[in-house]
Design a protein that fits this description.
Blueprint (H helix, E strand, L loop, with lengths): L10 H7 L18 H5 L2 H13 L3 H23 L2 H26 L5 H21 L8 H18 L4 H21 L13 H21 L12
Helix pairs in contact: 3-4, 3-9, 4-5, 5-6, 5-7, 8-9
């Protein structure tokens, strides 16, 4: 497991918090951005967040924009400081996105659900997140419950309302390609640790950001959904 270089920025924090559980290809640099390529590629999420804010008509769209903005910030911090605490922040950002996708699915099923019910679902998901964290299981497992629940409820909605799926298909494709790129990075496929311009995990940031934006377009493009389209 690589770590922050001794006597360089964030070294003391690395010793205190420990190493993250994933070892990406990019080698550490002796700079405020430990992994420059991985850190700066989060600008993809920032651009998507700005586009969502610009095109949103209501609270749900703006909430998604804030969520993507948090992903950008958390991931940037993680790859800048490269320690276990930063990785924890990174997973919180991703978990918030998975939770938002699940809550949007619930909104389709219960369009008149009030803030209390929505907040209750959100708190429940976060309890699952922290239970998995405290149990000692890999924190990555916390991403599965909201994602699987969303998929379980989304399929009947798609069939019932005959939704337009073009943007959803693009979203899934970009997410799958991004996941493949990230897995190849961990597996050291086409790995050049000293290339601080391009890394496969940087490509994951770009492709997953595209995936998020196309999911947003999927939500906006389906006026057959029960929630009011002007909320997105």
């Amino acid at each position: 497991m690589k770590g922050v270089i001794e006597n360089c920025p964030w070294y003391d924090q690395f010793i205190y918090w420990g190493a993250p559980t994933v070892d990406w290809c990019e080698a550490a640099t002796c700079s405020p951005l430990v992994n420059p390529s991985l850190a700066l590629s989060n600008i993809s999420y920032l651009i998507v967040a700005i586009l969502i804010f610009k095109n949103s008509r209501g609270a749900l769209g703006k909430t998604m924009g804030i969520t993507v903005l948090l992903i950008a910030g958390c991931s940037f911090i993680y790859h800048s400081i490269e320690n276990a605490f930063g990785q924890y922040l990174d997973f919180i950002g991703i978990f918030l996105l998975c939770s938002f996708i699940f809550l949007m699915t619930i909104k389709k099923i219960y369009p008149k659900s009030g803030k209390r019910k929505t907040l209750g679902f959100f708190i429940g998901l976060n309890i699952i997140f922290f239970c998995i964290k405290l149990s000692g299981f890999p924190i990555q497992l916390s991403l599965l419950p909201p994602f699987l629940l969303a998929a379980y409820f989304e399929i009947p909605i798609i069939r019932k309302h005959n939704l337009k799926l073009k943007n959803l298909y693009w979203s899934i494709l970009y997410m799958a390609l991004g996941g493949l790129a990230s897995a190849m990075d961990v597996g050291r496929v086409f790995c050049d640790p000293h290339d601080h311009i391009f890394q496969l995990h940087s490509l994951w940031h770009f492709l997953s950001a595209l995936s998020i934006y196309y999911y947003y377009l999927y939500l906006r493009g389906n006026k057959r959904l029960k929630y009011k389209i002007n909320e997105i």
